Every structure is written in C-alpha cells, then in structure tokens.
Amino acid sequence: MTPGKAYLSTEEIRPLAERSNAMGAWLVLHCWGTIAAAVVLFGLWPNVLTFGLAVLVIGSRQLGLAILMHEAAHNALFKSRKWNDFAGEWLCGRPILAELSAYRHYHLSHHRFTQTDKDPDLVLSSKFPTSRASLKRKFLRDLTGQTGIKQLTAQILMSVRLAGDHEAVEAAASDFAQAFKARDLFKSLPVFIGVAVLMGLLGDWWWGLAFWLLPYLTWFQFVLRVRNIAEHGATEVSQNPLQNVRTTLAGPLARLFVAPYWVNFHLEHHMVMHVPCWQLKKMHDLLLQKGLGGQMRVARSYGQALAEAGWRRA
C-alpha cells in the first residue's frame, strides 16, 4: 500500500501525481543550463572566486542529474516510459557514471522495505547518529576527493573483473552511494569523458578536468552524503512513514549548493513515490493543512539534520 493513502485521499493524490512533459524537459534543460552558466561565468571573469563557485554549483547539479534520474526511475519525469528511460539514462545517469536500470531496481527495493532489515540503504542510515569527529572525517574524505577516487577505482575493478571476489570489490568501494554506480562503467565512461572533452573544446584544455571531474570527485560526493544523512540518518527504525524519513527545509542557498530540485522533501516522496519532485512542496503544505506537522520528522535546516545525526556530539 502507498503510505500516503493513509493520510491523503485518491482525489488529493491524483492531481499531485500528474506528470508534465514540459516540466520534465525544463528540469533537464535547467540542470544542464546551470552547469553551462557556471562554466561561462568563469570564462568571462576567470578568478579564484568564480572557479570555486563553478565547482560548487556544478557538483550540486551533478547531484541534480542524479535526482532527475531518480525521477525517471519512478517514471515521474515525463509522461511516457520511453522518454523517462531515455532522459534518465543518457541525459542524467550516464553523464555521472550511473545507470538507470540498476538504480531503479535498487531504489524501488529501498521504498518497499524502508528502514527494515531488507532496506538496501539501511547500511548507510544505520550508522547514525554518530560523533562529530566521525562526520568530520567523512566530510574531509569527500571534499578532498578520497571518496570519489575510491568509488571510481572500485567501479573500474568491477567493470574489468580484475578481482575474483565480487564482494571483495564491493568492500573496497566507499560505503556510500552504492546506488549510483553503473554496473558496467565502460558504457557510462564515454559519456562522462565526452562532457569533459566538450568543456575542454569550448574553453581551455583543462576545463573538463576542473569543471567536470573535480566537482564529481569532491562536492558531488559531499552533497550526496549530506543528502543521504538528512533523508534517513538518525530517523526512527520503523515502518512509520512520518518518522522513518526526514524532510529538511531548504532556503535559496541550500537549494543552489546542496538540495536542488526539491530533493529535501523526502518524507513526502516516500508518502507517494510517483509524485513528481516539483509537486512535493504542495504535498508538504497539504499535510501541514491536515494537522500532521507535529507528527512529521522535519528539520528546519540541513544544519539541524546534521546535528540530529551527530554533529553536536563529541
């Protein structure tokens, strides 16, 4: 049963779940357009500030591509399965070394078994709350590229089958964001490299390394971890849909650098998983109107979500 049906009527859910081809196309164009704008900004005014801004914005939009692939996995990005599959695979997933079909299988299992021993994401959320020192170590590994390099190395090993033991290869990978790994890296790698090469052709030769690989190895890994912690870290281990997942309120800066495309409304997404991301704020407001605000796990900010996950602990 869809958890949201315990709180929302079919008549209330139906308009929220309506897909829009125009909105789906706009979201994909917006994501890639934001990436292009960040690179152009540096090209026009090359300095340390615009360089850093480009890395942060592009890293957050790489997460944006993952979010839009997630939308396509739920067939919520476009009205037709054909367009969801095409956009989710080639315009969103492959450019960030992800694979739609593998992600869809993984992620639907997460929805079916949220916060139970069958939840494939439980290994991520069960580690919280942790200590501030542990979070700092994780964030440092992300921001210095250690997490990204470790994951990419593990993907290469899995793809070329250099390791005889598949489980050992998985163990060699970072314990984070397993869902966004393409099973066969070499189907996605040409697309990833193609984006970097295009950036180099449009600017200096090193632009692809600076504005695609570097954000992927650093800021993308960081915001991916923050997103995961905020969604399920230190939440109730139960099947209560109002407490086993967290919505995090996000202002303009958080939406720009950490939480694009309404990804912060995660409780609402779990309520009715096929509601498009751009409708989740409406669902949030509707749940509040029904007087459920006091029962919902909602963080006022990502700072509060991280504090609940252990940032305030010694």
TrEMBL record:
Residues annotated as domain Fatty acid desaturase: 49-289
Keywords assigned by UniProt, alphabetized: Membrane, Transmembrane, Transmembrane helix
Alphabetical list of Pfam families matching this protein: FA_desaturase
Domain of life of the organism encoding this protein: Bacteria
Cited InterPro entries: FA_desaturase_dom (IPR005804), Fatty_acid_desaturase (IPR012171)
A GO MF term: oxidoreductase activity, acting on paired donors, with oxidation of a pair of donors resulting in the reduction of molecular oxygen to two molecules of water
Transmembrane segments: 185-203
GO cellular component entries: membrane
The keyword Membrane is annotated on this UniProt entry: yes
Alphabetical GO biological process terms: lipid biosynthetic process
PANTHER family in the cross-refs: DELTA(5) FATTY ACID DESATURASE C-RELATED, FATTY ACID DESATURASE 2
Protein name: Fatty acid desaturase
